[in-house]
Amino acid sequence: MQNFRFSNPTEIVFGRGSIAELATLIPRNKKILMLYGSGSIKRNGVYDQVMEALRGTDFLEFGGIEPNPRHETCMKAVELARKEKVDFLLSVGGGSVLDGTKYIAAAVPFAGDPWDILARKATVNEALPLGCVLTLPATGSESNGFSVVSRDATNEKLAFYSPLVYPKFAVLDPAVTVTLDARQTANGIVDAYAHVLEQYLTYDVNAPLQDRQAEAILLTLIEEGPKVLAKPDDYDVRANIMWCATNALNGLIACGVPQDWTTHMIGHELTALYGLDHAQTLAVVFPATLRRLRANKREKLLRYARRVWNLTGDSPDSLIDQAIDRTENFFRSLGVKTRLEAYGIRDGLERIPERLKNNGSLPLGERGDVDESVVRDILNLCAV
Ligand code: NZQ
Ligand code: ZN
Predict the structure, then answer these.
(1) How far away, in angstroms, is 261 Cα from ligand 2 center?
(2) CA atoms of 363 and 360, how far apart (whole Å)
(3) Are 60 and 87 in contact (CB under 8 A)?
(4) Same structural domain for residues 238 and 375?
(5) Distance 18 CA to ligand 1 centre (A)
């Protein structure tokens, strides 16, 4: 096992009715800025529950953070927060509102152009504290230090990490996720599943506990996925999916193991260039990444075939083929397409390897051997 440090400071408040607990979680002596998205919280009762819990606190609102949060919108919130001397941020929504909030938290005290935090990896020395009410299980952003932000002007989608932007608390009430439509529900399952694969399908470092933790999340998602599509208002199923998504990217299964974020990095470029949902990109790219990198990932792919898909047989190559096919079929069974052709995307893919090189993302892969030509191969496999 590799050396590691692990700390996850986010307090999780999980369960039915947990939004009411905001009343005790929100600091009383601070000026709060409550941030939200395009209005789903006003339609599903979450906004009213938050208003009730915030009664008696000093707060302002900022709505309109879009899916794949935009730098341009976040800067308007930064301006407001600076002007009003806000000193605590509350995100109410999915991963996009939360990622936007994290960026705003880092940008408010930042001297200089905040975009440097993403584009030049400028260090975040200070950030406003933040908390969240999560309405969409997918990203794991509720208990990690990552944020992904897009910029219209330059057509970029970039990520940053800072230990200072972990939410202080994350309120997770699965009951509020029943209003997610089939597309967002499936997206969330695919995203969480992909997060586990990025940390699990690398090479063996003799870390059986982390391997089994990863497998537990994958198996649970495979079990619960069809159930939630059949019965979208089943609280227990929603709860299981929500807890899986948090555990998929809260740092625990990453302890002491190699990681490979190739699929995510290619996916972010596909979103920036073609506007696909984050999880739609992952369902397309992951099978292709595994097919192209099957030699690098051979041992773990075999383990995945046997332990997650219960495959048996003597031919390692056939087991790996079947495991990749099963993965792809799982995404399809959730209604998420797995080829670029299915989205009508044919042209312009050659820009992606170069963009990844220019934004400093290459080489990728757990062995650092995914260069421009490998990315090109993966994209060719995604095409049709
Ligand atoms: O805008 P609102 O009105 O909030 O509506 C949203 C949005 O239209 C809607 N929604 C959210 N909760 C709902 C709901 N609709 C009905 N009922 C509810 N309870 O769903 C739509 C999608 O929301 P969004 O927040 O964009 O989805 P998600 O949580 O999947 O976040 C995706 C973003 O997270 C980034 C992605 O790149 C993408 O920008 N990621 C962040 C990561 C992180 N911080 O760790 C890791 C991930 O790999 C990912 O890259
Ligand atoms: Zn993701």
Answers:
(1) 9
(2) 8
(3) no
(4) yes
(5) 20
Q: Quick one: tokens of 261?
A: 């974020």
* Number of structural domains in the chain: 2
3-state secondary structure of 227: helix
Nearest to 149 by CA among 78, 69, 40, 237: 69
pLDDT in tens, 33-62: 999 999 999 999 999 999 999 999 999 999
Average pLDDT over residues 136-157: 96
Same domain, 98 and 214: no
Query: What pLDDT, on the 0 to 100 scale, is given for residue 384?
Result: 79
Check residue 54 and give its pLDDT: 95
Is the C-beta atom of 147 inside 6 A of ligand 1?
yes
Amino acid at 313: G
Q: Is the CB of 251 under 6 A from ligand 1?
A: no
Q: Which of 176, 191, 182, 166 is nearest to 92 (CA)?
A: 176
Residue 40 located in a structural domain: yes
* 362 and 236 within one domain: yes
| Residue closest by Cα to atom 26 of ligand 1 | 67
pLDDT at 38: 96
By the 8 A CB rule, do 22 and 133 touch?
Answer: yes
315-373 pLDDT, tens digit per residue, is: 999 999 999 999 999 999 999 999 999 999 999 999 999 999 999 999 999 999 999 99
Q: What percent of the chain has pLDDT over 90?
A: 99
Ligand 2 center to 298 CA (angstroms) = 23
Cis, bond preceding 363 (omega within 30 deg of 0) = yes
Element (H, E) at 116: helix 116-119
Q: Is residue 360 part of a domain?
A: yes
Q: 38 in ligand 1 pocket by Cβ < 6 Å?
A: yes
DSSP result, 12-54: EEESTTGGGGHHHHS-TTSEEEEEE-SSHHHHSSHHHHHHHHH
| pLDDT reported for residue 286 | 98
**Residue 107 contacts residue 117 (beta carbons within 8 Å):** yes
- What distance in Å separates the CA atoms of residue 107 and residue 154, rounded to the nearest whole number? 19
pLDDT at 75: 98
